[in-house]
Specification:
Shape: globular
CATH architecture: 3-Layer(aba) Sandwich
Strand content: 5-15%
CATH topology: Rossmann fold
CATH class: Alpha Beta
Distance between the termini: 38 Å
Structural class: alpha/beta
Number of domains: 1
């Protein structure tokens, strides 16, 4: 195999060129608004399945961008996703990124109530007092908690990025929002992860 020498500044551009070419070879055409997001998930994972399994609510991408431009915060369910999101770019619009999962008081409350930290974290996020985009890449319980709060009338999320990865409750948790009226970007099936959640947020930030 020949080694391709690419300048560091050009690696991402070259990667996206390769992705576009392989999508074309596969006969897959992405819509203009979805392409930057789906392609960034592929870039992050090297997994072309995302070209077939990413789901976008009607008008969802524009809604997410409107929220970001209006200063919405991002709430993630892992510090890994938090670390991967371009916080400087988000701050330029007036937004911040939060992850409450590792907070000691969240862990203590979850233990006392015998619920998951994801449940307590979503409850904390619901009280931020400003629009929030939820970027969930690990805990299906976070999606379930948001949905239960919505059903009870306590809180309705403005936007959900639902890409938890795994085997237990993952598919069912995603389907809750696929069948809801909440704007979303969701990867159908078992695949996802904190890196994918961060990639989707960054794709939105970079294409405003």
């Amino acid at each position: 195999m020949n080694i391709e020498y690419v300048l560091p500044a050009d690696i991402e551009k070259r990667s996206f060129s390769i992705i576009a070419a392989e999508l074309s070879d596969l006969g897959i055409t992405l819509s203009e608004d979805e392409a930057p997001i789906t392609m960034r998930t592929i870039h992050t994972s090297a997994d072309f399945d995302y070209a077939r399994t990413m789901r976008y609510s009607k008008g969802g991408i524009e809604r997410a961008k409107e929220l970001i431009k209006s200063g919405a915060d991002i709430v993630t369910d892992t510090n890994m996703a938090l670390a991967g999101i371009n916080k400087k770019k988000l701050l330029s619009f007036g937004g911040e990124v939060h992850c409450f999962m590792a907070d000691e008081d969240v862990a203590a409350e979850a233990k006392m109530r015998q619920v998951t930290r994801a449940t307590v974290s979503m409850e904390r996020a619901s009280k931020l007092g400003k629009p929030v985009i939820f970027a969930i890449g690990n805990a299906p319980t976070a999606l379930i908690s948001l949905y239960e709060m919505m059903l009870s009338g306590v809180f309705t999320p403005e936007f959900v990025i639902g890409v938890p990865v795994g085997f237990v409750n993952v598919v069912a948790a995603k389907e809750l929002f696929l069948n809801s009226n909440v704007p979303y970007i969701i990867n159908e099936g078992r695949k996802g992860g904190s890196n994918i959640a961060a990639a989707i947020v960054n794709a939105l930030l970079y294409n405003i």
